[in-house]
Every structure is written in structure tokens, then in C-alpha cells.
Amino acid sequence: MALPSSRCSFLLVFSAICWFSSLLPASAASNFNQDFLITWGDGRAKILNNGGLLTLSLDRASGSGFQSKNEYLFGKIDMHIKLVPGNSAGTVTAYYLSSKGSTWDEIDFEFLGNLSGDPYILHTNVFSQGKGNREQQFYLWFDPTTDFHTYSILWNPRHIIFSVDGTPIRKFKNLESIGVPFPKNQPMRIYSSLWNADDWATRGGLVKTDWTHAPFTASYRNFNANACVWSSGKSSCGSSSTPTNNAWLSQELDAAGEQRLKWVQKNYMIYNYCSDAKRFSQGYPPECNMS
Ligand SMILES: *[C@@H]1O[C@H](CO)[C@@H](O)[C@H](O)[C@H]1NC(C)=O
């Protein structure tokens, strides 16, 4: 089967014998005008600085959101985010990948705001084929509102790794071998939104949004996708900056990465579905017995 040199079929990606030549249109720094669409919020979401910065805002009337123009099937995707500062209690900033349909796949970061000086909760989840219920929650080891920090998703056929500033915080392994569905067939878009969730977000809905602090604003910059872009039933892998570097497709955590992951899980994880005995009194999901 002949493949055009600039394309790589999805199957070949798995066998890792694809080589890539000048795959994607050369583009320099990340540009939100090029890669994203503002999808809701009636002017509350803004792309600024010639595409270098995106802001979402929330007021009493509405939140706002954006999505990627591209769909991706695997990727190493980084975004620098600065969360709503000050009294952000009741607000939720969601940043996630999702496919469509009733048996969708989804990889979630959600940031639950808090009163000034109280910690944000970083909530994570993984859905495969429409089924989630795999929450892990963390505090962060820094204040995520004073500066931009890098939130990354490495999604390859072996696992999904969530990282913060390069430190892995969660790994969801491909355990199809023991019957756990793994997201690998449905292309996903990147989505983000800022909305009011004071019915549940801060201490389970106890703390309400203080609208005298509105509008609430979260900021985004330096998006980078080393990813396989899905288009017309085919996937093209590469990145704008380094088109031939697809090492991420088989990337594993090294020993130091595993150590960091353990450190975060030991010191910063505040909820793990795999240790919620009450919730899973009938038995834990199979992936929980693997680590
Ligand atoms: C907010 O702060 C309180 C008090 O420190 C803490 O219990 C809670 O987990 C924090 N986060 C959220 C989202 O409620």
C-alpha cells in the first residue's frame, strides 16, 4: 500500500515504522487564532496579543469557552494556564479532551476554585466508551493563580499521563488485556471552559460564588501539541516545531518520573476512586487492583 510521504496511516503509527517529512504547515509560536475557536460566552472569551493569549471570563450572566479546531488521535498536549485569582470559590475551569457521541472518551483536568488563600482542587477523570467514575483529586504544591503553569496530557497507545509543570501526577494505563476499555479509536478535541458550579464545587457546594468579585478570569498561552491530527479518516503525526519527533508515541515514565508520580500521589492526592471503599463496596474496578 503506497502512502503519500507526508501522511501516515493510523495502523502504521502503531508499528512505529513511519517516518515523517514536513508534515504539518510550519507554524512558529502557538497561535490561538490558528488552533482554536471560541465557542460560547458572548464576548467573554477573548483572543489577545495577536493570538498569543486567550482569556475566559465568567460573570453572573454567563461563563465562556473554546475548543480546538483540530481533532487528535493521541498526542502530547501542553497548555500554560493561569487560574482565576483571589476569591474564586464556586468557579470551575475545565480543560479536557473529548470525543463525541454516547460512548465518548474523555480526559479531564478540572480546577475547582476556592476562597482567597485556600487551595484549589485539581480534579482529574478518564472516560472510556462513555464510562468515567475514575476521579482522582489533588492539591497543588504552588499557587496556580499567581503565574502560568504547564498542564500536560500525554495520550499514547500505552497510557494517559497527566502532568503539571513536567511532574507526572496521574497515570492511566492501557489495561485492555484485563478488559478495561482504553481511549484509542475516537479522535478528541481540546475543550476549555470557565463556569459557575457553586452548587457543588467548593466544599461540596457549601461556599457560594461571590459575584462582587466578577468577572472571574482564567488565562491561557503557549499551547503546544505534539500530536496526531485526525482528518478525513486519517491521522498525521508530528508537531509544528519538530515534525520528525514522535518519540512521545511510545514514551514511558523513566525511573525519576515514577518517583515524582509517587511523591505527588503520596503528598498531594486528596481523593482516589481506587481507595473509596464505600463507593465500591461491591468491588473495585479492575484497573484498581493493578497498582
Ligand atoms: C478549599 O479550602 C478548604 C479549606 O482549606 C478545603 O477543605 C477544600 O478542599 C478546598 N478546595 C475546594 C475546591 O473546596
TrEMBL record:
Top EC class, one word: transferase
Annotated InterPro entries: Beta-glucanase-like, Beta-glucanase/XTH, ConA-like_dom_sf, GH16_AS, XET_C, XTH
Domain of life: Eukaryota
GO BP terms: cell wall biogenesis; cell wall organization; xyloglucan metabolic process
Keyword field: Apoplast, Cell wall, Cell wall biogenesis/degradation, Disulfide bond, Glycoprotein, Glycosidase, Hydrolase, Secreted, Signal, Transferase
Subcellular location per the Swiss-Prot or TrEMBL entry: Secreted, Cell wall; Secreted, Extracellular space, Apoplast
EC number(s) given by UniProt: 2.4.1.207
Chain positions carrying an annotated carbohydrate: N114
UniProt GO cellular component terms: apoplast
Reported function: Catalyzes xyloglucan endohydrolysis (XEH) and/or endotransglycosylation (XET). Cleaves and religates xyloglucan polymers, an essential constituent of the primary cell wall, and thereby participates in cell wall construction of growing tissues.
Signal peptide segment: 1-29
Residue ranges annotated for the GH16 domain, each copy included: 1-220
Family per record: Belongs to the glycosyl hydrolase 16 family.
Organism field: Rhamnella rubrinervis
Keyword hit for Lyase: no
Active site positions: E106 (nucleophile), E110 (proton donor)
GO MF term list: hydrolase activity, hydrolyzing O-glycosyl compounds; xyloglucan:xyloglucosyl transferase activity
Protein name in UniProt: Xyloglucan endotransglucosylase/hydrolase
